[in-house]
Design a protein that fits this description.
With about 170 residues, the chain is an alpha+beta fold. The protein is about 10% helix and about 30% strand. The chain has a four-stranded antiparallel beta sheet with strand order 1-2-3-4, with no helix packed on it. It is globular.
Length: about 170
């Protein structure tokens, strides 16, 4: 709705997969005008563009960092921190949102550094994803006890930490 109460648009359909809503409980809009929706039933946060197209999603049921248990609230502060709240176990999680402009600048910087790095060698500022220490991840019922091998984030499920070598972490 606009400021005068006139209907503008809507998006979303009932369902349980990415891009669908089962029980949406919280909504926030970031500085790039992306729409963040937390879904209690799916224990997931989904991010959409202004046209309602799914950009990315995160979460799943559990108590590990990045997982949710009855997620029901979301807010984004002026420092681009995404704060989620959960009914069980009664906690808040804080994530850092990297704006489109920050992501573009970091990509350009890494591309320039990569061109200067020796082939086959990670240059300063190279980014990679890794799982925390094995003892911190072991979880019954998860594949491989919850342990993950280093690799691209799209191939890893569960707790993942992104690090920047030789530069300040994002």
């Amino acid at each position: 709705f606009d400021a005068e109460g006139k209907f503008i648009t809507m998006f979303g359909k009932h369902g349980d997969g990415p891009g669908y809503f089962a029980r949406p409980k919280g909504i926030a809009v970031d500085c790039d005008k992306h729409i963040w929706v937390v879904d209690t039933y799916q224990d997931r946060v989904q991010v959409f563009d202004r046209q309602g197209r799914l950009l990315i999603y995160m979460g799943g049921h559990g108590n590990w960092p990045g997982q949710f248990s009855a997620a029901y609230g979301i807010a984004i502060d002026r420092n681009n921190r995404v704060i989620t709240s959960e009914q069980f176990p009664g906690r808040l999680q804080i994530f850092q949102y990297v704006t489109d402009a920050e992501a573009d600048a970091e990509k350009a910087k890494r591309d320039a550094e990569r061109k200067q790095a020796t082939p086959g060698e990670a240059g300063a500022g190279s980014a990679f994803n890794f799982a925390p220490a094995e003892k911190d991840l072991a979880a019954p019922g998860q594949p491989n006890g919850g342990r993950r091998e280093p690799g691209p984030s799209s191939a890893i499920e569960g707790p993942v930490v992104t690090a920047v070598i030789g530069k300040e972490a994002l």
